Structure formats: C-alpha cells, structure tokens
Amino acid sequence: MTTTVTVFGPLRSATGGKTISLEWSGGTVADAIAALVDAYPRAESHLYADDEIRPSVRVSVDGDRAGFADRVPEDASLMVVPAIQGGSEE
C-alpha cells in the first residue's frame, strides 16, 4: 500500500522532503513508523530509543491523532512529528 507521509522537524533532512510517499504492507501506526525507518534509516534516531518508538513521537492519521496500535486505513495520510530535544539543564 502507498501512504502519503508528512514529516516535521529533523525528519525532513532524514527523508529529503516534507511530504513523501511510503510503500509498505499496511497495518498499524507502529508498522508505518517501522516502514518509514526501513525506507529512511536516518530517521531512526528521531523516532526510536532503545528499540521502542519514543513516547514523544506524535502521529496523526487523516488529521486525527492516532495511537501506535491504531490501524492505518487504505489511502490514509500520516503526519509524523518526531521527538523534540529539550533545552539544556543548568
């Protein structure tokens, strides 16, 4: 299945653009994130920590916030906001 994915922040440099077309076998939001990393390995550090999706990663399916276990319907579009690094502690 083909899904349009809009990425934000540092993911743009990892994917080479704001909007990409992702070819994957379908499934859940977590499966889509894994497929994104398979297609764009430089995105991994922004999306995963210790082999798990970072809790601060936010995903929307067709404009609605989605959990990692939610299914992605055919022809859906995704928006992925990566983990944002905070300021320094002093």
UniProtKB/TrEMBL annotation:
Identification of the protein by name: MoaD/ThiS family protein
Pfam families, A to Z: ThiS
PANTHER family per the UniProt record, alphabetical: SULFUR CARRIER PROTEIN CYSO, SULFUR CARRIER PROTEIN SLR0821-RELATED
InterPro entries cross-referenced by the UniProt entry: Beta-grasp_dom_sf (IPR012675), Mopterin_synth/thiamin_S_b (IPR016155), Sulfur_Carrier/Prot_Modifier (IPR052045), ThiS/MoaD-like (IPR003749)
Organism, scientific name: Natrinema halophilum
Organism domain of life: Archaea
